[in-house]
Amino acid sequence: MLATDDFFVFEPQLNALVSLVPHVAINLAGGYRLAGFTDALDDRLDGATANVALQLQW
After folding, report:
1. Which of 2, 12, 27, 39 reaches 20 to 30 Å from 21, CA-CA?
2. Where would I find the beta strands (DSSP E) of 1-58?
């Protein structure tokens, strides 16, 4: 028996790179995730997203 669940995800995102000192920066991102054709999981997959990352350059 084969079980499948087809869906798609659309996640637009805005990124900003803030340089703190030479060779060190913070990457900030925010967006929204929208999933379609997810019969039972719509409320668990849709929503705001955020990311914070430290970038080191050598």
Report:
1. 12
2. 8-10, 13-21, 24-36, 47-56
